[in-house]
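From the pipeline queue, job 12 of 40. The input is one protein chain; the requested action is below.

Action: predict structure.
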Amino acid sequence: MSRRIALISNPKSTGNLAQLPRIRAFCAEHPDIFHYEVEEAEQIGDALKTIARVEPIMLVINGGDGTVQATLTELTNGRHFGDAPPPVAVLPNGKTNLIALDLGARGDPVAALEQLLHFAQGDLAPHLVPRELIALSHGSGESIPVIGMFLGGAGLADTMLYCRNKIYPLGLPNDMSHVLTAIAVMLRQFFKIGGRHMPPKPSPLRISVRRDGHISGRFSVLLVTTLEKLLLQGDFGGRGTGALKMLAVEHRSSTVLRFIAVSLAGLLGRSKLNGIHMEEADEISIEGDRSDVILDGEMFRAEIGQPIFLRPASPLSFVRLAA
């Protein structure tokens, strides 16, 4: 009899440093779970080859956004399950884990795993949700794409990297780290306070959303996603057609204040605002002078003559833990 759940864990994920012993113990008590641990992204292909032989009805990922992204990339490109990959679930873990939040995974990962095991013993259909995916490729766009759901660029990527490289090493709780990061960003944006201990000024970018048009400049926020809950409930009606939702906010204090105000009021996208760009498209290219973007926690670099291309990838089914 095949096992009902396959669980792939990354012991090096920050959240797993404390939780993995409990997860191992839970798996040892429940033979319906096939647990496979990987320490490097390069091992995920072998992990999925082995897991495919088990024929699980659900694939659960236990790690941060980088682990999820690497697994989705291998799941899509490696085709270890042929045309019928199992539904994917994500445990709440890691520093950011935006995908887990979108799927309702919050709190204790062991409790989430127990709930998923309960789902697997019955009808999964009511808990499944389709998700479009982003395929990221470099240069000519002919490279093997990396698969994800959430891309941050420009000032947003700089903020993520600042938090990761400057604030997290201080060893503070996550919430406090995020508050300090937000304060530093506001000081940089509104009071023009710079220096090596502050977030950098965003680099210029050229963003092409349609074949006949582009926007250029410095942006405090650049966000491309297929996720439902991470665009501040912005209204994309009439902003184009396509699976990729893009939001770009120009790097001017007045524009950023306007963006914050309409977002808090739930009016983002209701009317066109100068300096705030919202589009839906099936192809987006990003070109910049050594400008970083982050796809599901992993960094990529857009350079002059070597743009990053974003296109929709084949959708997958995911397991939602909560409404």
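Job complete. The chain has a mean pLDDT of 87.
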